[in-house]
Design goal:
This protein is of the alpha/beta class. The protein has 2 domains: 1-105, Rossmann fold (3-Layer(aba) Sandwich), CATH 3.40.50; 112-209, Formyl transferase, N-terminal domain (Rossmann fold, 3-Layer(aba) Sandwich). The chain is built from 6 helices and 9 strands; from the N terminus they run βαβαβαβαβαββαββ. The chain has helices at residues 16-26, 46-53, 69-82, 99-104, 128-136, 172-195; strands spanning 5-10, 33-40, 58-60, 87-90, 109-113, 141-148, 158-165, 199-202, 205-208. Strands 3-2-1-4-5-6-7 form a 7-stranded mixed β-sheet, with helices on one face. Strand 8 (199-202) and strand 9 (205-208) form a beta hairpin. It is globular and about 50 Å long. The relative contact order is 0.16. Bound molecules: glycinamide ribonucleotide.
């Protein structure tokens, strides 16, 4: 038997990806996994509201509440350990995860990115900026990527991707909406594969059985 996933979700905003995963778990489409904690750097994040509605522990933890990076990261680690978290899902979390946490949860942190990585990733590439850049470079295709989080921003191995055509009439907003639909399909799917123990990561190589 593979390990039961005790998931912490980190989210900064609306939390629609968090919701999609929660719905998949509640509907029985993902077994062997539970969201035990939601953390946001924004006190008014929709993700915290959704978590509380579902009686999931929800915490506002921001770097601004602490005087040092170490204190901030120690707080995050103590929450993760306290809730026995063994898997972390970044769902629209707009802050970088500290390397100590990445090391403690090696190959056990995933992120969703609204483009076809390795293109359109890295610093400054988040939210609507990604879709603006895709349209500005006249790409015919965009999409969503789920990847493993390692120390290099948006550079960890890709687990799942799904593509969508960029139409000549697309605006950054219309493209964002199309990509978000794909995100809601592939993110629960990726969590399901991890919960079923079907993803192996060796070095930078991901294999799915
Ligand atoms: C999603 O489109 C996600 O891919 C993006 O933020 C949005 C969050 O939506 N993440 C990034 O840009 C990370 N670099 P949500 O709060 O509704 O899930």
């Amino acid at each position: 038997m593979h390990e039961h996933l005790n998931i912490a979700v980190f989210a900064s905003g609306k939390g629609s990806n968090f919701k999609a995963i929660l719905e998949a778990i509640n509907a029985g489409r993902i077994c062997n996994a539970k969201i035990v904690l939601v953390i946001s750097n924004n006190s008014d994040a929709g993700a915290l509201v959704t978590a509380r509605e579902h009686h999931i522990p929800a915490r506002h933890v921001s770097r601004k509440q602490f005087s040092t990076d170490d204190d901030f990261n120690a707080k995050l680690m103590s929450l993760l350990v306290g809730y026995r978290v063994n898997f972390i899902v970044l769902a629209g979390y707009m802050k970088k995860i500290d390397s100590k946490i990445v090391q403690s949860y090696k190959n056990r942190i995933i992120n969703i990115h609204p483009a076809l990585l390795p293109k359109f990733g890295g610093s400054g590439m988040y939210g609507i900026h990604v879709h603006e850049a895709v349209i500005a470079s006249k790409e015919n295709l965009s999409g969503a990527s789920v990847h493993i989080v390692d120390e290099e921003y948006d550079r960890g191995p890709v687990v799942l991707q799904k593509t969508v055509a960029v139409d000549s009439t697309d605006t950054p907003e219309s493209l964002a909406a199309k990509v978000l639909q794909l995100e809601h399909e592939i993110y629960p799917e990726a969590v399901r594969l991890f919960a079923e123990g079907r993803i192996k990561v060796i070095g930078k190589q991901v294999s799915i059985s």
